[in-house]
């Protein structure tokens, strides 16, 4: 056969292999779609810009023998891996293919994911994993477990350097669940995504407790109760659309800033509605999300952990085109107190923003930490210290805005001037004190009140005196702990001006291997 004939044959063989890899197993694809799930390649088409995907290791096959896999060596080995773009920005991706070995992870499968993670770190690009896997491939034994370990080690090495996103579109069981836990953001789809370390059968055998897959590790369980899921969606389409939106808010890596259009000059943009949203009386509730919507560009923001630890709100948004992280107490839930879960949620968010150079804006309206034996016995001191540590360690521009009350240790923890915020602003309704006037009077004047002819009248008089002398709006400003007392309507402009002022902030932490976070 001539050289030309040989080349034609080789091209034909290559094309046939490519077509086989792309088509996959027809029966498996049919089963996947019958369950209301898209294929791995369908999902990548939704996630990435059209025509941008470059696949690697398409021809990879496992090298295992026996136990029903030796004669079945499909191309790709159950994971589609490579790189593409989202709105023109480079990302690295892998999508597990449940139609091949149930998406289970063996040595070749793991090696492809290792390669994606290595390339993402080497190029300084975000990495996105689309998970749909039955777990470790039993037939490959310890090699499968070693593959997971290699993934986890690479994720830890990349933490704080490139954004890591995990999307659960099917099962993610056993050791595989640690990959989403190590990521910066985890998405789950209701009805199809399941995540747990030990499945319902093991739970029943060990504890006698009967629980369904969804009750044990469904999307709402991790969205509301465990806090493992950052975002929960009803379908794959809206989920992957939000992944794209999230990527648009993130820097490619820790050395590059978040994507922004040409910066606008700061202009006076009054928001008079803020005074109507937030009642002047400190014990009346309101929705902090309405405040955030007034402060950010076009009222548009992306909320993390919306249904977990709802007494604190964490969002990514833009103010004057600049991406910022906003942390705010939520008076609608538990009066906005800090507790164990709120501290954990906010601490992780603060550390993410700091790692990737995203400025922080903290909206304060906090009555304190949640009291009670349950909180104390469960370590609220240790968990509250996580948020304190996160703020103290953060070197990005930090702006605090005190809307109403800021009492006790919770005031300190919510990025007060004393722990290093760069700019502290306060509304005329601010009340900064060790505690509210009523509680303070009851502690300080217990004997006087007990002996008074009219204790109620005395209490009111003492409360007025306490508020006038120690809790008036300018008390902290007079002592340099608040930089300015601003009109509510001027808050957006003041924040934008503060961000512009702090844009070139540089901080050099003292050299050390790492601190000892109170985990």
From TrEMBL:
Residues 1-262 form the CoA carboxyltransferase N-terminal domain. Signal peptide: none annotated. PROSITE patterns: COA_CT_CTER, COA_CT_NTER. Keywords: Transferase. It holds the Pfam family Carboxyl_trans. Residues 266-514 form the CoA carboxyltransferase C-terminal domain. InterPro entries: AccD/PCCB, AcCoA_carboxyl_beta, ClpP/crotonase-like_dom_sf, COA_CT_C, COA_CT_N. GO terms for cellular component: acetyl-CoA carboxylase complex. PANTHER family: PROPIONYL-COA CARBOXYLASE BETA CHAIN, PROPIONYL-COA CARBOXYLASE BETA CHAIN, MITOCHONDRIAL. This is Acetyl-CoA carboxylase carboxyltransferase component. It comes from Saccharopolyspora antimicrobica.
């Amino acid at each position: 056969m001539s050289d030309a004939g040989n080349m034609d044959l080789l091209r034909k063989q290559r094309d046939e292999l490519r077509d086989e890899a792309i088509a996959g197993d027809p029966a498996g694809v049919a089963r996947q779609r019958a369950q209301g799930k898209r294929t791995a390649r369908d999902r990548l088409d939704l996630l990435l810009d059209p025509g941008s995907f470059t696949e690697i290791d398409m021809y990879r096959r496992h090298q295992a023998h026996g136990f029903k896999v030796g004669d079945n060596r499909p191309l790709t080995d159950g994971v589609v891996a490579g790189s593409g773009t989202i709105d023109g920005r480079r990302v690295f991706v892998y999508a597990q293919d449940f139609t091949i070995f149930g998406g289970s992870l063996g040595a070749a499968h793991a090696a492809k994911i290792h390669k994606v993670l290595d390339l993402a770190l080497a190029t300084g690009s975000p990495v996105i994993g689309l998970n749909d896997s039955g777990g470790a491939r039993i037939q490959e034994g310890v090699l499968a477990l070693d593959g997971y370990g290699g993934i986890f080690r690479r994720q830890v090495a990349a933490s704080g350097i490139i954004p890591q996103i995990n999307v659960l579109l099917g099962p993610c069981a056993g050791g595989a669940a640690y990959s989403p836990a190590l990521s910066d953001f985890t998405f789950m789809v209701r009805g199809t995504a399941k995540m747990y370390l030990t499945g319902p059968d093991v739970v029943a055998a060990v504890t006698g407790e009967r629980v369904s897959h969804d009750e044990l590790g469904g999307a709402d369980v991790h969205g509301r109760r465990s806090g493992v899921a950052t975002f929960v969606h009803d379908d794959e389409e809206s989920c992957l659309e939000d992944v794209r939106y999230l990527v648009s808010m993130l820097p490619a890596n820790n050395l590059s800033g978040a994507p922004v259009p040409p910066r606008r000059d700061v202009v006076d943009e009054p928001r008079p509605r803020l005074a109507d949203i937030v009642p002047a009386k400190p014990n009346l509730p309101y929705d902090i999300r309405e405040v955030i919507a007034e402060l950010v560009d076009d009222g548009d923001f992306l909320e993390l952990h919306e249904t977990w630890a709802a007494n604190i709100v964490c969002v990514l948004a833009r103010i004057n085109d600049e991406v910022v992280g906003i942390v705010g107490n939520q008076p609608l839930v538990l009066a906005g107190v800090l507790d164990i879960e709120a501290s954990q949620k906010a601490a992780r968010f603060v550390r993410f923003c700091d790692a990737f150079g995203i400025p922080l804006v903290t909206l304060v309206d906090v009555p304190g930490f949640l009291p009670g034996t349950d909180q104390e016995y469960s370590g609220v001191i240790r968990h509250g210290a996580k948020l304190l540590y996160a703020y103290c360690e953060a070197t990005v521009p930090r702006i605090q805005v005190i809307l109403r009350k800021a009492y006790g240790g919770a005031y300190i923890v919510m990025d007060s001037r004393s722990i290093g915020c760069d700019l502290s602003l306060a509304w005329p309704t601010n009340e900064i004190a060790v505690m509210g006037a009523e509680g303070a009077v009851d502690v300080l004047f217990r004997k006087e009140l007990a002996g008074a002819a009219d204790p109620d009248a005395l209490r009111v008089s003492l409360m007025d005196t306490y508020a006038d002398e120690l809790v008036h709006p300018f008390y902290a400003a007079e002592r340099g702990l608040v930089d300015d007392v601003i009109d509510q309507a001027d808050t957006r402009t003041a924040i934008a001006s503060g961000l512009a002022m702090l844009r070139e902030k540089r901080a050099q932490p003292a050299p050390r291997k790492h601190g000892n976070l109170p985990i």
